[in-house]
Amino acid sequence: MEGNFLQLSYALDTFYFLMSAVLVMWMAAGFAMLEAGLVRSKNTVEILTKNALLYSVACTMYLIVGYNVMYPGDPISAYLPDLSFFLGADNTVEAVIAGGEGAPYYSGMSDFIFQAVFAAATMSIVSGAIAERMKLWPFLVFAVVMTSVIYPMEGYWKWGGGWLDQLGFQDFAGSVVVHMAGAAAALAAVIMVGARKGKYGPNGEVHPIPGANLPMATLGMFILWMGWFGFNGGSELMVSNVDEANAVAAIFVNTNAAAAAGMIAAALLSKFMFGKTDLTMVLNGALAGLVSITAEPLAPTPGLAMFIGAIGGLIVVLSVVFMDKMKLDDPVGAISVHGTAGIWGIFAVLFSNADATFFGQLVGTVATFAWMFIASIIVLYIIDKTMGLRPTEEEEMEGMDMKECGMEAYPEFDHKS
């Protein structure tokens, strides 16, 4: 009887894990729609191609080697995993019904697919930040290295049981491990490729470059919001008993509350600062609220979750303005959403998680940023010297769609700009 119960629990938790993975995979569509909506029409096909291919590259490389780097069977040390390839066999019935501490309670394959879509999400952050001025195939070469080695290495340090986990660094679903990590790589790429032509004037002027399809960008935001329930909720890893089911429900409530509060806060600050309610700031406010709560979506009360999300929404508006002052061109605000809000979120853990320490959160954040930024700069420099990262000025003016993909997203319109 107990064996049947354990098998049923195993099946339920596995199913929950898989459905959470489906939701996170759906975030790939959200990133694609958001980015395609916030670039000019002449670069729409190229950014969609990047998003589609980066997902496939990420899943392939994570299957071949990345998962084993992040979750090594026999690590060399707390800093270095071992090196192995592909996936082993899944759990046996005998191992499941043995029960007790250490017995598997969900499929190992379900864990892989859940972690693989996280790797793809991390890479998606980079694609938005360098939109409209980084060539397709050099970007995909970077995606190969990013998802096979760079991201899995820092993931091992925390989620694979490495030195940051042993230090007590707390990051439930990835405000730093995923979001700030992706933003650090994105910042390296933005510095390497430079700003879009005409974005900044010689005297510090900032020239807005509006996106071509704000309805599409808004759809992308809502898809990401929906996918985040799987991102945070799935990270609980279990749903098969009353306590765990209640925990998942609390995570959903807090995730939603933080997103809503972040959107409202960003809208209010946008109105105060600019005299207008900037839709792009509103969209990014919700996403910043989601990033902020990701580091600890379970422990806070719903009221605290609203506060954490609202501060994230305020921070992202200020961060976008600061990025432009620094002439760091980020067409979709990815570095501000995932980086600045991710840093806030990791320290907001201190409000509700008694196991977290300021020192642990600080070391985890600095180490992750340093690794992601420095490793990305090195790889991007090599790619730039061998393949070139940026198209010619003429190709950039014409638009990357025709140069890279040979087609236009809206061929019935004349969009020469």
Topology at a glance:
Elements: H1 2-38, H2 44-70, H3 93-98, H4 108-129, H5 136-158, H6 163-167, H7 175-193, H8 214-233, H9 242-274, H10 279-294, H11 302-325, H12 334-348, H13 358-386, H14 393-398, H15 400-405
Note down, in words, how this protein is organized.
With 417 residues, the chain is mainly alpha-helical. It has a single domain (2-79, 105-405), classed as Ammonium transporter AmtB like domains (Ammonium transporter fold, Orthogonal Bundle), CATH 1.10.3430.10. Helix content is 69%, strand content 0%. It has helices at residues 2-38, 44-70, 93-98, 108-129, 136-158, 163-167, 175-193, 214-233, 242-274, 279-294, 302-325, 334-348, 358-386, 393-398, 400-405. The longest helix has 37 residues, at 2-38. The mean pLDDT is 96.
Count of runs of 4 or more consecutive helical residues: 15
Overall shape: it is globular
Distance between the termini: 70 Å
Radius of gyration: 21 Å
Topology-level CATH name: Ammonium transporter fold
Please tally the β strands and state the result: 0
Overall pLDDT level: 96
Query: CATH-wise, what's the superfamily?
Result: Ammonium transporter AmtB like domains
Structural class: mainly alpha
Task: State the low-pLDDT regions, or none.
Answer: none
Q: What level of helicity do the residues show?
A: 55-70%
Instruction: Please state roughly what percent of the residues sit in beta strands, choosing from under 5%, 5-15%, 15-25%, 25-35%, 35-45% or over 45%.
Output: under 5%
Assigned CATH architecture: Orthogonal Bundle
